[in-house]
Structure formats: structure tokens, C-alpha cells
Write a structure and sequence with these properties.
Largest sheet: 6 strands, antiparallel
Structural class: alpha+beta
Organism: Kineococcus endophyticus
Radius of gyration: 16 Å
Distance between the termini: 15 Å
InterPro entries: tRNA_Adeno_NH3ase_assoc_put
Number of strands: 6
Low-confidence stretches: 96-137
Number of domains: 1
Protein name: tRNA adenosine deaminase-associated protein
Length: 189
């Protein structure tokens, strides 16, 4: 499966905000390392947003602005923990407020577990995430759902897109439409 990455920076503010792509290769690393790379890609303290997608699996957003700490949100932390970008998501708090780590079976393969019992207590990486009656894992997103709130995408909308969209590209396009960068994002695909 392929990855898609884009780095975007706004020019202007409010309704007059235009987004442009920033030419930078996103290397896997910690949030601080990625934040430093994003800050170095622009000349001032404006926000910089990285959009990452793993085809048919998950999307992630990474934002930094000036000296503000890096904010990260991922739609499926369990799947993302098995990706090339795993270091970026390693210490994110889960929807329940606890770190998400995919458990591994005897062969070292991810078994889809998050290390959280249904009541939210940590259990050394052996319990499954809460599941709905249909057996679908719920609330596997992690990170800061408020990272786009001041730009126009509320935490509620971001979580809804993370939990309801089967296609990560559709979710990021919808985010792009809300913020005004959908055309730029699609031109990069």
C-alpha cells in the first residue's frame, strides 16, 4: 500500500486564506523532528500542516506554528503504529487519554490490539479496544482533535471523519474543502 504526503502552509487569514504546497520530504521520526522540518520549510511563524495518508487505512495531520508544540492527530492509531511513520504516533494519547501501542503476536505481527481494556485500564498490551455490537473497533483515533479548531475544523468534525470515513483520502479532501486547500491537495495527488 502506498503513502501520500503533502505539506501545506496558509497565506493570508480568515476567508482570504489561500494555501500553498511546501516542497519538503516527510521523513519518519518523532513529532519534534517532524516539527523542526516543518518549521524550517516556511519563513515565518505561520501554521504549517502536513497531511499523511496510508492508502485505505488511515490519515494523519501534523501541525506546527512558530514555537508552538507540534500537534498530531491520526484516524487509526493501531494501523498507523505498524507504518513507516510509527515513531510519529508512538506516544500519542488515545481517545481514552492513554497511549496507544499495537500489541504483537508471537511472530511479531500486529494483532489489532491497543493495550487498553474495555474499561480503559492499561493491560501490558494484551486487551482489545472497545468494540461496538457489530464487532467494529471504536475510537482508534489518537492525538489532538483540536489541532484545526482555530482554522475552522472542530474536534467533533475531525473525530467524525476519523471514525466514519472508510477512505482516508475522502476524509482529507473534506477537511481540505472546509479549510480551503482541497484543490491544492488534489493537485498533488
Amino acid at each position: 500500500m502506498a503513502y501520500f504526503t503533502a505539506v501545506l502552509a496558509p497565506e493570508g487569514s480568515g476567508d482570504d486564506r489561500d494555501w500553498r504546497s511546501v516542497d519538503i520530504d516527510l521523513e519518519a521520526g518523532s513529532p519534534d523532528e517532524l516539527g523542526d522540518a516543518l518549521r524550517g520549510a516556511v519563513d515565518d511563524d505561520r501554521p504549517v500542516l502536513a497531511v499523511l495518508e496510508r492508502e485505505d487505512e488511515w490519515f494523519a495531520l501534523v501541525r506546527t506554528e512558530g514555537d508552538i508544540d507540534v500537534k498530531v492527530f491520526v484516524s487509526d492509531a493501531v494501523a498507523a503504529a505498524e507504518s513507516a511513520y510509527a515513531p510519529l504516533f508512538a506516544e500519542l494519547p488515545a481517545a481514552t487519554g492513554r497511549p496507544v501501542h499495537a500489541a504483537r503476536d508471537e511472530d511479531g505481527e500486529a494483532d489489532g490490539e491497543t493495550g487498553l481494556e474495555e474499561d480503559g485500564d492499561a493491560d501490558e498490551g494484551t486487551a482489545e479496544p472497545a468494540r461496538s455490537e457489530s464487532g467494529v473497533a471504536e475510537d482508534v483515533w489518537a492525538g489532538d482533535p483540536e489541532l484545526l479548531g482555530d482554522l475552522g475544523v472542530s474536534a467533533e468534525v475531525l473525530v467524525r471523519l476519523a471514525t466514519s470515513s472508510a477512505d482516508p483520502a475522502e476524509a482529507t479532501v473534506e477537511i481540505g474543502e472546509l479549510l480551503g486547500f482541497a484543490d491544492v491537495l488534489e493537485s498533488l495527488r
